[in-house]
Amino acid sequence: MVNIRLISASTVHAAADDQKKEQPNLRIELTPWDLQLLLVDSIQKGLLFRKPKESQINCLIHHLKTSLSRTLDFFAPLAGRLATIKHDDNTISFFIDCNNAGAEFVHAIADGVSIADIIESTYVPEIVYSFFPLNGIKNYEGTSNPLLAVQATELVDGIFIACTINHTTGDGSSFWHFFNSWSEISRGFDCLSRPPILQRWFLPDIVFPIRIPNLICKQVLCSKFILPPLKQRVFHFSRENIAKLKAKANVEIGTNNKISSLQALLSHLWRSAIRNNKILDPDQEVNYRLLIGVRPRLINPPMPQEYFGNAVQAGSITMKAREVLDQGLGYVAWKMNRMVAMHTEEKLLLNFLESWIESPQLLTMDSMVTNALVTSSSPWFNVYGNDFGWGRPIAVRSGPGNKSDGKITLFEGVEEGSVDIEACLSPETLQGMDMDAEFMDAVTSYTTRDSSGK
To answer: Around Cβ 380, how many Cβ atoms within 10 Å?
Structure first.
């Protein structure tokens, strides 16, 4: 049995805190996009590196903590805690108190585990979950737990650097913005190439803090979600094969490149998952849920790309299982295309925010899982540019947070234009997909970068 040994655990504070003691703590109000995530898990992503050849590990750990401290100077929310205000009308408000209570940093060793054990296994080994800190902590527990935790796990020939970030502080774009910034500071940058914008985006004339019914404990206790036995597998798609899927989808539906590469790829995945899910009733409704970034789509007031917070709208399509299989790749991709187009309209986004404030709805795991594939993250996030000073990463994996049957996580692939899909599904479905010639014809062999990032 693999043993994970804890070497040390410490709290890392923002480096410049001593210079700010005379200033009041920055208070960041939370938006509906932030607040709806209180009852679910944090964001958990990690990068696998080859172990540096000319460095003592203790010096490396010290360097990571020092550079993290300096990075927190720019990302004050991640060094803070959630805070609450209880109101007389039995409602509660949450905000981020940037009090520099600090982030958690864990140094651990996975005895006997090598890089090959992680990247050459057909399924993601369960040991990978142990590389992530704060497992099982819900976002609302950020009142007493760090909003950021880092774990550096030594392998025989590598290092896995994992981050767990409270989801109320930001979305996937914000997560990788922080990771990219930390790697810049670690390489010796004095200033960030993209400083984060911490001020939250609100509707004009909004009255904040936003109040929500004080039902958190009741909802958590009533939740009966039980995670079924699942496995994870990473499917790698080359740029060339993705282009073929895009061309096929557009030809089938008779469009002029209106269907995107990603829409064609996800439709290809969905059709295989349905085909191998052993659905008994072909008229059963199935869902595909896609998280859509809205930063470039909000103009009144505008939202900058460097906005640090949540700015994601969920969209979904519902079809009968027989439709997904019988109508073909182009039809499914076109349905996805139309759904995405609808959710890029600013009026719809603003209507969601207004209606949520009037009637707050908090997401829970059991509310998100109903015969659905749920896609998060994006292949456009900068994953393989995270060089901390000894070379770029060779692989990326996600933690156990928010995992369910149908959770699909997207990453950029190691080669330019390629995409990795981390699929969390039942063992039976994944085994069926492995034997699905139509699906696997588009999957290519997984490759890695060497320690220099090539």
So the answer is: 14
